[in-house]
Amino acid sequence: MRLFASMRSFACASFLCARYKSLSFVNLQQQNEEQAVKLSRKIVSNVDKSGLSLRLYQYQTCPYCCKVRAVLDYFGFSYEVVEVNPVTRSQINFTDYKKVPIVRTPCYEHPLIESSLIISILATYLVKPELSFSDAVELYPKHVSKDAKTGKEVTDWLNKYFVMWGDTKLDDGQMRDVRDEREWREWVDTHFVHLISPNVYRTWSDSLATFRWFEQVGEWERNFPTWERVLAVYVGAAAMWGISKRLKKRFASYCG
């Protein structure tokens, strides 16, 4: 019996050691990937007590990224910014998800995606300090369904516009504010942002001028090699010009 117990203990210890080495290797690999990425800038807040060490992968002019930056700045988070090339997207090779914003933190092993989801998770973490960050993320379960028209899988988070107040008591005025905030956040995602593209990419010249402005405010000259910068401007302008035409048909009554 003692021999069996010793063998079992040894096997468990060996498994845990191997598992630890595997996790350590993955974490080290992630750290090396992150260190290899060029930072656009670093925002340091003296009031940040979160300990999250956030890193935001973004396009400077993307409305979804602007939302996340506004929340990070408003609540006083410290964070690093990585400007992503909109065509090559080589800065986010660590994930199969190829949209921005993406937020990473050492406090959670997976990248955070979807701007509204990111905002709700961060807000919940702030209002419920007794939760670990992982616990806050787990309050937003992923829901996978099939699109009735295309048959493709669609991933969503059904409560992504909700800040989880838990047992916190809110008065009638606060409840009204919470509902209004939730409705406006959803309206921005489902309606407002879709009106931007048809109005800023109306023609090829408008689209090209817009991407040249993106190049300027995103500091692409400092962040990307010349060939990537040229590719992003011309390929990006052409792609968005085409996309804007489809969006204009869908939202024709709201586009000038």
TrEMBL record:
Q: Which InterPro entries match?
A: GLR_AS, Glutathione-S-Trfase_C_sf, Glutathione_S-Trfase, Glutathione_S-Trfase_N, Thioredoxin-like_sf
* Entry GO CC: mitochondrion
| Residue stretches spanning the membrane | none
Entry-linked Gene3D superfamilies: 1.20.1050.10, 6.20.200.30, Glutaredoxin
Xref: PROSITE patterns = GLUTAREDOXIN_1 (PS00195)
Q: Which GO terms describe its molecular function?
A: prostaglandin-E synthase activity
Q: Pfam families annotated for this entry? A: GST_N_3
Q: Which residues form the GST N-terminal domain?
A: 56-122
Which named protein is this? Answer: GST N-terminal domain-containing protein
> What species does this protein belong to?
Meloidogyne enterolobii
